[in-house]
Give the backbone structure.
Amino acid sequence: MPPLIQTSADLALAAARLASGSGPIAIDTERASGFRYSGRAYLIQLRRAGAGTVLVDPIPIDDLAPLRAALSGPEWILHAASQDLPCLAELDLHPVSLFDTELAARLCDFEKVGLASITEQLLGFRLEKQHSAADWSSRPLPHDWLVYAALDVELLLELRGKLSAELAEQGKSAWAEAEFEHVRTAGPPKPRREPWRRTSGIHKVRGAKALSRVRAVWEARDELARKLDRAPGKVLPDAAIVEAAVNDPTDFAELMSLPGFRRRGGRTNARLWLSALSSARGLEGEHLPSTTPPQEGPPATHRWADRDPDAAERLTAAREVVTGVAEAHRLPPENLITPSIVRALAWEPPKLVSEQHVRDTLLQAGARPWQVDLLAEGLAAALR
């Protein structure tokens, strides 16, 4: 196993070795999202032909400039790139071109596209995933964790070759290139409106007053979790927030009577939770949250038949088109086109339903040209 790079001097040597290699660079990262608030990378794994495998601990290294220079030209190979690119971007590491082995496997219509599954299927090697949920922010990193991490990039170069050949055989190479570029340039997702509404178990909470208690405790927890760099669920579980919202405890004894607050985080920060509940208790009128979540885009599809029967019929017809084209080209429907784009089109089609207007609408919504070429004519007919 290669040594773990933890100093600027060692990084400079490793980066020079990567730069002297040939071909694309396989990259993976390990994060600690189940333990930390941030999504930062706590380990970066790299492999390139002629350079071997490099493991970098980015935490103690102040300047990653040598690595940045080595990565600035070659194609990057990642599996499920959208999961790794944000934490790499935080380190100012950005690809100029990309090959996503998970996305390639989806476009090739493999049933299982996890790294372990696709590696076993195409290369005959079985990867162990026992450390995938480990706390990678802990130090020192155990030897067996580092072995596991190194194996994640050990076979990516060969896997890319197999998938590239499969894409070419199926006539999907150009589609894959367009999808890889879309992932590479997508940028971070938009922040969610009212993220506190995603509290697990919030369906048990009734009324604006109780919802304001969910919001108050959730926001207090989020602020504390951010300061501590701990996963919010480690600070206070969602179940405790729901308990507080339903029961509205007013003092320490009442708060401690709720099972979710008996853990260390609930007890230690009891004053914070009680203060949040108290602030929510004083809210009235427009300061209370709506009992109906804010709607982004069309309503839930199960309501369409009552609210707009014509839209429901359009959606059924549009979905049939997508399913038919996907089957004809051996593509998962969700990779042929994002389902939300189809829903938006069916809910509010262009005023003049022609193939060109449908094409323009799809492109404006973010569909790629190859997707539009396959679907525009059929969707226009379905909408009519």
